[in-house]
Specification:
This protein has one domain (about 10-120). A hairpin with a 4-residue loop joins strand 1 and strand 2. The longest helix has 17 residues, at about 85-100. It is built from 5 helices and 2 strands. A two-stranded antiparallel sheet has the order 1-2. By secondary structure, the protein is mainly alpha-helical.
């Protein structure tokens, strides 16, 4: 069984273009929506994402909507804790494919990481 995990040097989730996420108002409270929109750069990428290093420059202080946590995903999407793993994997696969392509190194690395982690349990 695969277990979700974030992989380094990806950052696909840091592409925040609001037109790609027309339902933001449905799952973000007004304050979080305002924060989200303030983080979107002119190119659609998060202003805190270092594209050269491919890492978040505010990782430890990133907003709660940037965290894959059971309580956050339940509040935002109604995802039950026991469904979080599969939901997060599907979200990441979709976003990575959308940003980097379905044959990208990022997607391959993600799939290897989640499958390897699952085989260790």
């Amino acid at each position: 069984m695969a277990n979700w995990q974030c992989i380094s040097n990806c950052g696909a989730c840091c592409y925040l273009e609001p037109s790609d996420r027309p339902d933001l108002e449905e799952y973000l409270i007004p304050q979080d929506l305002q924060t989200y929109l303030s983080m979107v750069g002119s190119d659609g990428w998060c202003i805190y994402f270092d594209r050269l290093k491919r890492q978040c420059s505010i990782y430890e202080q990133r907003p709660r909507f940037c965290r894959v946590q059971a309580d956050t995903f339940f509040e935002m999407f109604g995802v039950e804790p026991e469904e979080l793993n599969d939901f997060a994997i599907a979200c990441c696969e979709e976003q990575i494919e959308s940003i980097y392509g379905d044959r990208s190194l990022e997607l391959l690395r993600f799939e290897q990481a989640i499958n390897q982690q699952g085989s260790l349990d």
